[in-house]
UniProtKB/TrEMBL annotation:
UniProt protein name: PrsW family intramembrane metalloprotease
Source organism of the structure: Dysosmobacter segnis
Pfam families: PrsW-protease
Example of a GO MF term: metallopeptidase activity
Presence of the UniProt keyword Membrane in the record: yes
Keyword set includes Ribosomal protein: no
InterPro entries: PrsW
Residues that span the membrane, as ranges: 6-22, 29-53, 65-85, 92-114, 120-142, 154-173, 185-202
Taxonomy, superkingdom: Bacteria
Keywords noted in UniProt: Hydrolase, Membrane, Metalloprotease, Protease, Transmembrane, Transmembrane helix
Length: 207
């Protein structure tokens, strides 16, 4: 049995200490790291709760429950950031990527503690695949929100629509991974090119 809250404490402790040693303007990145890992921890509890509530098997839980719970949990700290601090688009996009990457990092470490570290090739492929998938889901807000950033109604509508896109992308990824074999390998490799495409689109938008 893996006590993921203990893993969270071990990972969060040095970040909290680092927060205390930084100036106020330098703390944002570490705060979003903690938010991403905290979202992953809470998602694990909620996934288990809803899976038991609806008596879902592993595949249904991975494809129907986990994507919804995890993407909503990743969005919550961003919504708080948006509502309270009114950040610029660039800061919001950076926060979204940090939360997503931290979420994926904590998820990978929990997977490592549960399944061992003896299969380095599989762990490497899965680590990059899952990490890229979460980063893509975080990056999805960056490409579309820029043109509507100054309009609150449009921004709110787009946030909900992009959340749905992230959930669908996440669900497809989990479905392919659950299938095993060739679909699983496809799922692990597709997010990396997708992340690169987002990067190219961001460069074009900045140019």
């Amino acid at each position: 049995m893996t006590y993921i809250e203990n893993v969270f404490v071990c990972m969060a402790a040095p970040l909290v200490v680092a927060l205390l040693s930084l100036k106020r303007g330098q703390r944002a990145a570490l705060v979003f790291c903690l938010a991403g890992m905290g979202a992953c921890l809470l998602s694990a509890y909620l996934n288990t709760f809803f899976a038991r509530l609806y008596q879902a098997d592993a595949v249904n839980a991975a494809t129907q429950i986990a994507p919804v719970v995890e993407e909503i949990m990743k969005l919550l700290p961003l919504l708080f950031f948006l509502a309270v601090f009114e950040p610029t688009f660039a800061r919001f996009r950076l926060a979204a990527v940090i939360v997503a990457a931290s979420f994926a990092t904590f998820e990978n470490i929990c997977f490592l503690t549960q399944n061992g570290a003896d299969q380095i090739l599989f762990l490497l492929i899965r680590g990059f695949g899952t990490g890229a998938m979460h980063v893509v889901c975080g990056n999805v807000y960056g490409g579309v929100l820029r043109p509507v950033w100054d309009s609150r109604p449009l921004r709110a509508a787009c946030l909900f629509a992009l959340l749905c896109v992230a959930i669908i992308y996440h669900a497809i990824y989990n479905l392919l991974v659950s299938a095993g074999g060739t679909p699983q390998l496809i799922a692990y490799f597709v997010p990396l090119p997708t992340a690169l495409c987002f990067r190219l689109l961001a460069r074009k938008a900045e140019a």
